[in-house]
Amino acid sequence: MANSLQDQLLKAGLVDSKKAKQVQRQKKKQTKQQHKSGVQAVDETKLAAQQAQREKADKDREMNRQRLAEAEHKAIAAQIKQLIESNRQPRNGEIGYSFSHDNKIKKIYVDARQQKQLERGILAVVVLGDQFELVAAPVAEKVAQRDADYVALLNNPKEETSSPDSDDEYYAQFEIPDDLMW
Fold it and tell me: Which pTM does this prediction carry?
């Protein structure tokens, strides 16, 4: 039984020796190609694994960057909250002061001194949560450096070249007609 099918076919005369040798060469070629393609398949799987590893590392780096940005944003928000809470001015006035915020007219109640300070740019209105608070203008500028969305109103201080009294003096030089009716 040591005889292979090929040997048996040769003895029976059904296949000639040329044909048998040609079949053997083809088998050897096929086995060589399988070994080569097996090595290539291994290389391809290694490459695919390396590519997947690189993609995972890139994804991890991106997620880490996002976490750091989020942590930085939270730290800035905490700094702003601390600035506002430690520097807010008490509001207990009855004068309504209107200003625009997010394309809406908002109103806070202040006293006469705070109203003048808001108009002159000495005080500013900032957002803390869902409320509006009064803080000094330098504090509002610090808040704006960190995140400008927290500042609702910050008037530029006007150079006061003339006081209200000097306006009266200026207009005093003009005579008021007698026939002018108020």
Answer: 0.54
